[in-house]
Specification:
With 215 residues, the chain is mainly alpha-helical. The protein has one domain: Up-down Bundle (Four Helix Bundle (Hemerythrin (Met), subunit A)), CATH 1.20.120. Helix content is 71%, strand content 3%. The protein has a two-stranded antiparallel sheet. α5 packs antiparallel against α6 and α5 packs parallel to α7. The longest helix has 29 residues. The model has no long low-confidence stretch (mean pLDDT 89).
Amino acid sequence: MFKKREEKLFIGYYTPSVVMTYIGVISACLGIYFALNNHPVYAIVCLIISGVCDGFDGKIARACKRSNEEKSFGIQIDSLADMNSFIFLPIAISYSLGLNKWYHIIIYTLFTLGGIIRLGYFNILAEDTGKDKGVSKYHGLPVTATSVILPIAYVFKNFLECTAFRTFYTTVMAFIAILFVLNFTFQKPKTKWLYVFVVFALLMIAYLLLGPIIK
């Protein structure tokens, strides 16, 4: 059982263990703003930044001394943050790219449903495994993968005709929705792969922001 909560001005926790999660949420909110104002490139940059934050928030949290309640809060807030960063933001980006037909709404619905189911299932595994250890295997495609897959998919905009690109991007979104809930497992990447992801993130952001200038 959790200890009796102290009277505080604000509910929740604001310790170093959740700072990266909150930064990821802020980045995602900015990304949604950019997407709704027809700036998909900036929105995708925010998606990548949120992905980097999510990649390191768990390691930072486990390195901090936390109460059981703080550990449980961390698990829950991480999934809620992931919904904002890797489900809602990608949909906003897709809509800003002109994917607004009736069948896109169906894909967005499946994408959201699949992501939420995947996050809920992950929470069960995290609780069963232990809040300090973290999971050793992923079941289904982690929602964070959208911060890698979708930026790469967006790059094809420079090589495909508009209609072809929209068809391609729509297909990618549909496959991601399926992979969220497909019953497959793979080993959680080791720390070194997080640094590879950081390098990828920096290169991708540089390409997205500087590419038009270089051209």
